[in-house]
Every structure is written in C-alpha cells, then in structure tokens.
Give the backbone structure.
Amino acid sequence: MSAAREQVLARIRSALGRGEPDPERTTELRDRIARHPRHIEPAFDETPRQRFRQKLEAAEASFVELDTLDAVAAEVERYLEAQSEEKSIATSGDKLLRAIEWPASIDAQPWSAGNDRKVSVTAAYCGIAETGSLLLVSGEQNPTRLNYLPDYHIVVIEAEQLVLRMEDAWDSLRASTRQMPRSVNFISGPSKTADVEQTVEYGAHGPRCLHVILVG
Amino acid sequence: MQPNSRHFQANAESALREPNLQSALKQLESGFVAGRQRCYDALPEFEALRDRAKEVLDHTLDNLDAYLLEYEARVLESGGLVHWASTPAEAREIVIRICRDAEAKTVIRGKSMIGEEIGINDALEASGFEVTETDLGEYILQLGKEPPSHIVAPAIHKTKDEISDLFLEHHRDLGFTQRQTERSALVNEARQVLREKFLAADVGMTGANFLIAETGSNVIVTNEGNGDLSSTLPRVQIVTAAIDKVVPTLEDASLLLRLLGRSATGQEITAYTTFTTGPRRERDADGPGEYHVVLIDNHRSEMLGSELRPMLRCIRCGACMNHCPVYGRVGGHAYGWVYPGPMGSVLTPLMVGLDEAGHLPNACTLNGRCETVCPVKIPLPRLLRSLRSRQHLQRQNSSLARIALALWSWVALRPRLYQLLTRPAMALLSRLGARNGGFKRMPLASGWTRVRDLPAPQGSTFQARWQQQQRERK
C-alpha cells in the first residue's frame, strides 16, 4: 500500500492519541454498521400518497394518477401531444414497462447505445413520500443516462412502491440486492439552477420536465 | 489558486464599493436566509436533528481511521480503486496519472470545493488535458477566469450582463453569435454547449458530499444534474474527497441530507441526490468502466488533533456565510482563497498558513449568528477566537495589537485598578458625548469612527451597575 495511505492513517491515529483500533473497537464499529441505526425521522400529517404528490408538484414536476398499467401508453401519448413533442420515446427495459403495449402511433424503443432520444420513460424502484422523491437504480435494464440526458423524463411508479422515508428505501434495497447498485438516484423534480442572479431556471443539464405517472 | 488573503482589508474596501456585488449580497437575505428559515419553521425536529448530526459526526471523527478503512474495503470490493494523498500536490499527481493511464484527452468536472482546494483545473490544463467545469456557476467562473465567491453558489457575484458578455465572447466560435440577455436563454445556451462536452468527455470528476463506509458509495447532491452526467457518461470516473467526508451508514447520510439542503438553499431535498458505488457492473447498461477515489488529507489530520477538531464536522452548506454580516458586505473574493465566510476563516489559515490568512479570524464581530445556524453545531466563533490566540502566541499579530493586549490584560487582571480607571473614564465619556448621543471622532479609535459614530456610554460601568443591582435586590 502507498506511503501516503500509511502517513495519513498514522497522523489520524496520533491525532486521536492511540494506535490502531483494537479488535474489540473494530467489532463494535462493524456492528454499528450492520445495525445501521435509524435517527430522527420527521413526522408528517398527510398520507404518503398525498405527501408524495404534493412535494413533487411543489418542485414543478407534473403528476398523474392512473388506476391500471394499461392506461400508461395513452397517458404518455396525451402528455407528448400536450407538449407538442414528437411521439418518439426511449424506454428502459424494466419489467414493469415491458408489460406496456405501445400503440403504433408511438415510436417506443428500448434504449440502446447511440440511440439517445428527447423523451425517456423509466420505472422507479420506489418513491419516497417524505421528500417527494423517485428512486431509480441502475442495472442491466436500467441505464442511468435515461434519467438525465432527455429533455422529458417520464417516470412510472406503482402505488405499492411508495415508502415513507429514505431509510425505508435502504431497507428494501438491502433486502433485494446483495450489493448497492452502481447508481442510486433520488430524483425530486426537474433539473434546475439558480446560478444566474440567484433566480431559478429549469432545465439546466438534466430533464427540463419531469412527469410522474402513479399507477394503482 | 494563489491565496490573496493577506490583502483582506484592501479587498474588503474595494468590495464595499462594487454596486453589483452589493446588490447580489443583499439578495442573500431574501433568498438563502429566508429559505432556510422557512425550512426551519416547518420542521419541529430541526434542533433534534442538529444534535444527532453532531453526535454522529463526532463518533465518526473519533473512529476516523477505522471508518476510512471500512470505506476503502467496500470500494475495492465494488471494483473501484482508492488512492490516498497527504497534500494537494500528491492529489494532483494521482489525478493526472489516472488520466494519462486512461489515455484521456478531455475531463469534465462536477462542482467540488476540494477540486478548488487542490487546484486541479490548472494542473490538468498544464498537463495538456482539456478541462470543463459543468456546474453552471463554475462554468461561468471558468470562462471569466475567476475563483468562486461562495461555496454553494460560486458565481453569486456575477450579473446577468457580465454572463451575457462572457458567453458571447466564448461561444461565438461555436455558432452562438447572438448575445443572449434572458436568463433562460443563457441557461439554455450553456446547456447546449456543455452537452457536447459531456458526451465527448473521457473522464468525469466529481467531489463527494459524503462517503459511506457501509457500502463504499459516494454521495453527490445537485440541482442541475451535472454531477450525475459527469458520473455516468465518461468512461472513467474520479471522485476527489477529503478524509472528513466519510460517515458510517446510509442512515447516517440520510440524517445529514435532511439538514444539508435546508441549511444550504432552503430546500428539503435538492432535485438530485445520487449514491454511486464503484464502476459499472458487468451487465449494467451504462456507467464508467473505471472508478477511482482520491482521499485527501491536506491538514485535516492536524485539525483532528487540535482544538479545531469540530471544524471537521462541516458539511459545506454555506449557511454560516449566508448569515455572516461580514461576508454579507464584502462577499467571498475578499477572503482571498477557496473558502470564504466563517468556515473559510477557520479553514484558510490552516490550509494556507496563519501568516497569509491572519486577517480572516479577525474579520469577525463574534456575533455568533454562524454558530446558531450551523446544522452540525460547529462553534465557529470559539474556533476563530482560538486562531486569534494562536496568532498572538506566535507573535503574528501587529506589535501595536500585542502591546495593547498586554496592557489591557495587565489592567484586567487587577480588578481594583481596572475599576479605578474605568469608572471615571466612562463617566467622562458619558458627559462629553451626552450632547450628541455619541462621538464622530475619537482618538485611538479612528478605525471605528471613520465609518460610524461611537455611541456614548451610559455613565457607569457594567460592574458598578451590577453591584448596585445586587444591593437593591437585597
């Protein structure tokens, strides 16, 4: 290992007035990591569904609630017409989206390298009610770039995937995968910046518009 | 960047005469400060969160070596590499070596203060790499060849007109021949120019708001999405992070995230909060093939062993500067280095030397507003006082100040003498100042009276009044 590594560690230990942490201490710390205790979790009065929608709308995302997955294709078509955008979308290969039958009037392609489009449709791993955040995770079927490159990002989320807080999402991820996915993205609104005279403008680098479709 | 902190006084005087800067700084109060207050009022748990955050960070610092090693082990497991650097020079060398080994030509950067701290852009450019900042504020400053003036909103001092001129000058060759004057058009132009850079870049560099020992992840918080594009599109990702960024678990990061956005910009959460762990997995659809972390000390281990340890809790929200009456008048450039305001006045002397930055701990009225709003309860005024006393002990303050302090302490340690001298002095000043309510000029206090009146004292000293009050109570 590098000399700098040993120097930094030695300086830290001398600053803390001790040598290497003893095995007992190390076990204690690993135990704390394994227990990953939760901290203070702010209370809120709204139902998770209300809160989720309210927070996203406050952050200038648009929001639609549908009863069934069958209605998603028509909603996407309606949305694109309302935006006067071409009906050409890149979808993630997420299981949820594969169940959607796109009408001939929409050119829907699963994303492939070199085929970036102006509109993407992806599925959320879950939604966080406290902050109004969509959680999207990377994987074989879920390219991260679909969350950031397009002008319009349409996210489909099942109502049963709503959780109260970020901490609930961690528990769910721990239960479902052995290792953190490479990219875990909490998305809480369209891209924005206030770098020009402290005034908010939307569509800085990421999507100009975020459209959330809650199903169920 | 070359520090220019020794000229704080001159810098401050000229800053006070810049109308654009003054109007930008005035907006802080209605923007960030009011936003934080709204968040504070809406969250009854805010104070409890601050206490817990302090506890968690103190626990982490007490076990910093162990948590860094856990973090390192998890990064290695996820297929990433960890490089350690004691100094900015070592960090720069490591980054340049990684870029060379990857046969990279272009580097894009998500905003990171540690990048400024180690001066990475100049070093990369000097080694022949094309470097582009992608945070809009940082990009504007890169075009204008200026340092940031705020750690959250780096180009807070630039006006729309100045940005219009800069864009026209630098984007003309790219086909943007019209001078844009609308904010939205400026943002859009930058989006188009930088989009090409994103898609072409070989290396993406980001900082880290936190590093997670549990998972080996780095966390980036942005509103623009530039940090995410920088982490996703290029084939190599380099994360530069200070050793004090590590926290034990995802839950600990969630705790701090509840405080960060609220304290920084008055947002409960920013548009994007991203946890990145290692390079793309074998079957992943996208993401970089290489993932490097450069862990940087740069005097932090020294702070850990001194009375300044609480400074290592800092999560870089900028609330201390937003609420600082000195920063609020002179802005960030006056401080002469990367970190301005109260947190900068502690960090800069440690990182560039007390001889260079000796003015900074003194550019403080000790009003305590920074400590009141600090989400992790850093006792900034106490740390600044402690730097002042270091300065005194190292004889780095002026001889006049030392003589005055010696004299005062000699008197102050002798209560009878102190009272004997102060009582008639206060009585005299009160009588002399009674007519105008204050003094327009005062010998030995011209530093004060040149720009404001000195109010006349009420007549008796604090001690005299205290004693009288105690007698009356009996």
User: Anything to note?
Assistant: The mean pLDDT of chain A is 96. Residues 3-15 of chain A form the longest helix (13 residues). The CA atoms of residues 128 and 163 of chain A lie 5 Å apart. The two ends of chain A are 53 Å apart (CA to CA).
